[in-house]
Write a structure and sequence with these properties.
Number of domains: 3
Number of strands: 16
Largest sheet: 7 strands, antiparallel
Number of helices: 6
Shape: globular
CATH topology of the largest domain: Rossmann fold
Order of helices and strands: EEHEEEEHEEHEHEEHEHEEEE
CATH architecture of the largest domain: 3-Layer(aba) Sandwich
Strand content: 35-45%
Helix content: 10-25%
Structural class: alpha/beta
Length: 268
């Protein structure tokens, strides 16, 4: 079962006018969290917002001895919850439920891990890279956004030994265009087995899934869904999955996901 705690805010790093990273003291959650899992957060004790919102676990925070002491979340200020997260001060308390959901599957050499992120879709990949490093897996991040402002925290990715490929739709950083273009070229030239992991806007996930199918490589995606509870009670986060009879059926992304085999999802 997940833990439900009032987690003290350890830090709030405002990366830009829109993006921030909030660190929470939540040792119980940190010890049990796996790459790709998430927490449900409510940053205010008031009625607005009424429900918690899902956030991928970004980092596992550790003490000087390497023991897990908390988690962080990467957020973009869009609505009420994310604005409240952006404005949090050290010492405030956040209602935090987790860890929740199905994690990514880990790979081993000679398979390389290629992570494809769009904007805050970077969030689940710090823990994934950290988990793959002791296995000796070579990791590459394909990171895309609308502009340079949407590409953040690359220093953390680099510190984990991850190679990176950047692309922005307006050309303000990295390659001009969508990140799936350099991904497609890399798949054509790949000389080692590859496993894809993707998180970001659904059109990007669908494009990555099509590339994976074309090149016959394994692909897992972390879907973004509005969740009311995070534990399967409200059916607000359903995803269409291919059934054995060829017809789609719906599963809850909070319990069956948020990580899915890309080939199992009905994208259109």
């Amino acid at each position: 079962m997940p833990f439900d705690i009032a987690a003290p805010v350890r830090f709030n790093r405002r990366l830009s006018a829109a993006y921030n990273v909030v660190g929470l003291d939540a040792a119980e959650i940190a010890r049990r969290a796996r790459p790709g899992q998430f927490v449900m957060l409510k940053p205010s004790a008031g009625l607005e917002p009424l429900l918690r919102r899902p956030f991928s676990i970004f980092e596992i925070l550790r003490d000087a001895d390497g023991q897990p002491t908390g988690v962080s979340v990467l957020s973009k200020k869009i609505g009420v919850s994310t604005t409240q997260l952006y404005e949090l001060e050290e010492g405030a308390r956040v209602a935090c439920l987790g860890p929740l959901g199905a994690p990514f599957s880990l790979v081993s050499p000679p398979t390389d891990a290629w992570m494809v992120a769009g904007g805050v879709g970077l969030a689940p990949f710090a823990t994934l890279a950290e988990a793959l490093a002791p296995r000796g897996v070579r990791t590459t991040l394909f990171y895309g956004g609308r502009s340079a402002d949407d590409l953040c925290y690359l220093d953390l990715v680099e510190s984990l030994g991850v190679s990176r490929v950047r692309a922005t739709e307006d050309g303000s950083r990295g390659e001009h265009g969508r990140v799936t273009a350099p991904l497609a070229r890399a798949l054509q030239q790949a000389s080692s087995p590859v496993a894809l992991f993707a998180c970001g806007p659904e059109p990007m996930l669908a494009a990555v899934a099509r590339l994976a199918a074309t090149h016959r490589v394994r692909c897992e995606v972390s879907v973004e869904r509005v969740m009311g509870c995070g534990m399967g009670g409200c059916y607000s986060c359903v995803v269409p999955i291919r059934g054995g009879d060829g017809k789609p059926h719906f599963v809850r992304s909070c319990t069956s996901g948020p990580v899915f085999d890309a080939a199992a999802i009905v994208w259109e």
